[in-house]
Design goal:
With 325 residues, the chain is an alpha/beta fold. It has eight helices and nine strands. It has a seven-stranded mixed β-sheet, sandwiched between helices. Strands 4-5 form a two-stranded antiparallel sheet. Helix 3 packs across helix 8. The longest helix has 19 residues. The protein starts with 13 loop residues before the first helix and ends in a 10-residue tail after the last helix.
Length: 325
């Protein structure tokens, strides 16, 4: 594994004015929380950890530090009567699918391919294939401005290039697609088609990650929960190992125990993007059984359906607030 909303047009609904006016009177700045997260060393090849790919370095460029240091302000609405909860869903009030720009980041690059599967296939190949399918499905669902982001170069430089590209596109949502592995110490040896390989059947499942350092953590977390909930609803289970002490410094806080959303606060592609950002580990390719499933059309269809459903939910227009009955 690796790393605002479109402008309002004419004819803003009357309920939007009510909420906006209320927010203007009652908003209070709330400083974003702080925490921490996992590096690319997680999914190294059998010989080398991927230490550079999900770079979590504190030595980042000034531009990145500036982006990370901006503190979002969240709106707090006081007692003005019961508001429709969906009306408060981040971004939903102004989301038009045809104008909503989603960046689908293909994790890793052809030069730095990420993890190696149990059958010696690079993670980048899995990431690219799944991301292309998700792109096609989102466009078919009306999200015509979906952009597939394929980055070139070595691991660390590519992280900042993909963030810069997403920021330059003024994306409304950033989703990075990956496939998971385990730390090298957990790998076991086996032979596949006459070639030495490595596997770990100990863990499996998807995981979803966000960073408290993101400029809009609240919205990132909201979408992450929607995505994880859709994955779970389709019968998939999340990878529980990241919350376990056995993972050592690869252990990360579990933010949503029900669906499997974790925090990875120092991940560059989540921390320095200027839009809500989420990273999806679609499943484990170092687990021999799950690798075969991840290679199947059926599993890719399930994951693609989950992503599209989550984006639709995220972008769904809220019901107008008509006041108490």
């Amino acid at each position: 594994m690796d790393q605002q909303i479109a402008g309002l047009g004419l004819g803003v609904p009357r309920w939007c004015s009510v909420v906006a006016a209320s927010a203007a009177l009652l908003c209070l700045p709330i400083e974003a929380g702080k925490a921490n997260w996992l590096t690319d060393a997680f999914k190294g090849s059998p010989k080398h950890d991927k230490a550079g790919a999900h770079e979590a370095s504190s030595k980042r460029p000034a531009a990145a530090r500036h982006a990370a240091s901006s503190k979002p302000h969240h709106v707090k609405l006081a007692a003005l009567g019961p508001l429709n909860p969906s009306a408060l869903k981040s971004g939903a009030a102004v989301c038009e699918p045809a104008k909503f720009r989603i960046v689908l980041d293909v994790g890793h690059t052809a030069e730095s391919e990420g993890a190696t599967s149990a059958r010696n296939i690079p993670e980048f190949a899995f990431n690219l294939r799944l991301a292309k399918q998700v792109e096609e499905a989102l466009k078919a669902a009306g999200f015509a401005r979906t952009k597939l982001l394929v980055t070139e170069g070595k691991a660390r430089p590519s992280l900042f290039r993909r963030v810069a590209a997403a920021n330059d596109l003024s994306a409304d949502l950033f989703l990075s697609i990956h496939h998971d592995s385990v730390p090298n110490k957990m790998l076991e040896d086996w032979e596949f088609e006459g070639k030495k390989s490595h596997f770990s059947d100990r863990f499996s499942g998807y995981s979803v990650f966000v960073s408290h350092g993101n400029a809009d953590f609240k919205t990132s977390f909201s979408f992450a929960k929607m995505l994880a909930r859709e994955m779970k609803a389709r019968g998939l289970k999340y990878a529980e190992q990241y919350s376990q002490p056995i993972m050592g410094h690869y252990q990360h806080p579990l933010l949503d125990r029900e669906t499997g959303v974790y925090s990875y606060d120092e991940l560059v592609v989540l921390r320095t993007t200027r839009m809500p950002a989420v990273l999806l580990e679609a499943g484990s390719i170092i687990n021999r059984d799950e690798e075969l499933k991840m290679d199947s059309v059926e599993r890719r269809d399930v994951i693609t359906g989950a992503v599209v459903a989550a984006v639709k939910d995220f972008c769904a227009p809220p019901e107008p607030f008509l006041g108490p009955p």
